[in-house]
Amino acid sequence: MHRILALKFAAWLDPHFEVWIFSTIDQIILGHYREMKEATIEQLEAEKEWRERRDQLIRKNPEIAKIFQLELKITAAEKRRIKAFKASMAQLKLEFFRESKE
What we know:
By secondary structure, this protein is an all-alpha fold. The protein has helices at residues 3-13, 15-60, 64-101.
């Protein structure tokens, strides 16, 4: 008997096994999508709350806006630094592989 037919027969014999099979397939196919969707929703909700609280702080104390601007500059500079580092590592890898082939 083919293994697919064996699974179909086993699912027919035991409804709990059939539910387990379909749940497992569903998790394999859609599990990462659901996890990504939930994480995205969580992130968006947290960002919204962060912006609201930041705006409240700025209204109460306008000088704090400068601190947030500095944070943004620091973050942007760090992202640029990491991007440049990754580009330089990629270039080194290319040169290494090119030299090893010669």
